[in-house]
């Protein structure tokens, strides 16, 4: 058998080499599978492993855990590069990166050492599982899981809807409210645990190939060794800014690809497209501005140890809002530039439009983000966590 080349995390990585390695997988492997992922709901497991070997998930991870140590800017660039071609794969890459972020920031060093290298390199795939908790902590919905302390760990019950990047043996994060307490725990789990069932009970207009399941917990024992934090107030505040900021990569990649579609349409329809309000150069300039701001915030966040101050948190939320709104605007412009050709099911512009709504709806959704922003401006509206 041929010898595999070393993974990027095993070599001296730079931003340039990191981007080049990911672009190669995207060009040679992912591009040909976009239609199957989007229209057939095919989960790109092998491509995810290849992206992991290229270092796509390792940049927010320290070299001691097989990370590149390049930081959140490089992580965002990875998501951006993948999302430019396929937002489904860009999203589950974000899921993977989010899980590395949980482990990079936990005080449970044994759990960190046992799992982080495999997840950072894509040898093991992983989801986030924090959609419901993030909404709960913003006073939007009730917590889905409850945890009862038992000997050696916790017993979990409840139904967690729509966790992505899942499959047999995949790891994902959860948060649960402790019974008879105001405290919460965060832990990592998988469907290997007795009493857990994965259910696929919904079909989506986009992002169908993302391994998205509902997770049923019936007396699931989670050992203390899998706990990320308990209580988890400080821990959630530590991970939330990176959780939000890395999502901006999806919006940047999508909007950038819409500019490319607009320019392609203009080769045939430029004489009439010039009458539309949003032009390719206008969108491109806004993407460049959003990209520069996001990268600067990522560099700032890399330097933070412990709690993130209110001003930086506010700017991160604003960057995520801008990514959602820019995605919607760019995808609509791409549709209008393409005209009737865009209205064919499965056309690139039609897919971008469906994907853009996901950027605006995925947790934290646009309305959720604006609620958070208001709470930072008016502290009496701030949630407990």
From TrEMBL:
InterPro entries, alphabetized: Acyl-CoA_Oxase/DH_mid-dom_sf, AcylCo_DH-like_C, AcylCoA_DH/ox_N, AcylCoA_DH/ox_N_sf, AcylCoA_DH/oxidase_NM_dom_sf
Membrane-spanning parts: none
Secretion signal span: none
Domain called Acyl-CoA dehydrogenase/oxidase N-terminal: residue spans: 16-122
Classification via Pfam families: Acyl-CoA_dh_N
PANTHER family in UniProt: ACYL-COA DEHYDROGENASE, ISOVALERYL-COA DEHYDROGENASE, MITOCHONDRIAL-RELATED
Protein name as catalogued: Acyl-CoA dehydrogenase family protein
């Amino acid at each position: 058998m041929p010898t595999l080349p070393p993974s990027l995390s095993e070599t001296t990585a730079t931003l340039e080499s990191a981007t080049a390695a990911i672009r190669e997988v995207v060009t040679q492997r992912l591009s040909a599978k976009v239609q199957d992922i989007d229209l057939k709901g095919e989960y790109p497991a092998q491509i995810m492993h290849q992206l992991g070997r290229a270092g796509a998930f390792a940049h927010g991870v320290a070299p001691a855990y097989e990370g590149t140590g390049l930081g959140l800017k490089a992580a965002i660039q990875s998501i951006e590069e993948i999302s430019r071609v396929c937002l489904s794969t860009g999203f589950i890459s974000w899921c993977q990166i989010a899980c590395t972020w949980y482990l990079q920031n936990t005080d449970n060093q044994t759990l960190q050492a046992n799992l982080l290298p495999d997840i950072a390199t894509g040898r093991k795939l992983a989801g986030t599982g924090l959609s419901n908790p993030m909404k709960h902590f913003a006073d939007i919905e009730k917590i889905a899981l409850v945890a009862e302390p038992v000997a050696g760990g916790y017993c979990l019950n409840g139904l967690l809807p729509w966790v992505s990047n899942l499959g047999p043996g995949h790891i994902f994060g959860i948060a649960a409210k402790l019974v008879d307490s105001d405290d919460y725990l965060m832990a990592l789990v998988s469907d290997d645990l007795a009493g857990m069932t994965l259910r696929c009970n919904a079909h989506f207009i986009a992002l169908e190939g993302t391994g998205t399941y509902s997770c049923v917990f019936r007396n699931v024992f989670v050992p203390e060794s899998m706990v990320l934090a308990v209580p988890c107030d400080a821990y959630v505040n530590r991970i939330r800014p990176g959780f939000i900021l890395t999502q901006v990569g999806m919006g940047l990649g999508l909007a950038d690809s819409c500019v490319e579609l607009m320019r392609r349409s203009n080769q045939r329809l430029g004489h009439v497209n010039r009458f539309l309000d949003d032009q390719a150069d206008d969108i491109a300039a806004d993407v460049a501005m959003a990209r520069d701001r996001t990268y600067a915030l990522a560099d700032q966040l890399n330097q933070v140890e412990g709690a993130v101050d209110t001003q930086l948190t506010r700017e991160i939320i604003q960057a995520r809002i801008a990514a959602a709104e820019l995605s919607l605007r760019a995808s609509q412009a791409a549709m209008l530039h393409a005209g009737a050709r865009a209205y064919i099911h499965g056309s690139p512009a039609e897919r971008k439009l469906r994907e853009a709504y996901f950027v605006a709806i995925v947790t934290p959704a646009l309305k959720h983000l604006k609620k958070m922003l208001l709470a930072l401006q008016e502290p009496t509206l701030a949630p407990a966590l």
